[in-house]
């Protein structure tokens, strides 16, 4: 087993957990007080559905880098 197998397992477990959430649960505050569960999940998964250059451009444009 490689580290990538472990990563794939963790990603699948996260997806399985998120799939069960209700609309109300998605809107709840996360442990990151200013973020909802939905915003936190988006943060954790953004890199899997956008390219690194696009991610970096959006980060800089949002004031998140610097």
Rg over C-alpha atoms, rounded to the nearest angstrom: 14 Å
> What's the number of helices?
4
Strand content: under 5%
Number of strands: 0
Report the biggest beta sheet as strand number plus sense, adding barrel if it closes: none
Name the structural class. mainly alpha
Textual characterization of the structure:
There is one protein chain. Helices cover 62% and strands 0% of the residues. With 66 residues, it is an all-alpha fold. It has a domain at 31-66. The model has no long low-confidence stretch (mean pLDDT 85).
Secondary structure blueprint with pairings:
Blueprint: H1 3-19, H2 23-27, H3 37-45, H4 52-61
Summarize the structure.
By secondary structure, the chain is mostly helical. Helix content is 62%, strand content 0%.
Notable traits:
4 helices; 66 residues; mainly alpha; flat; single chain
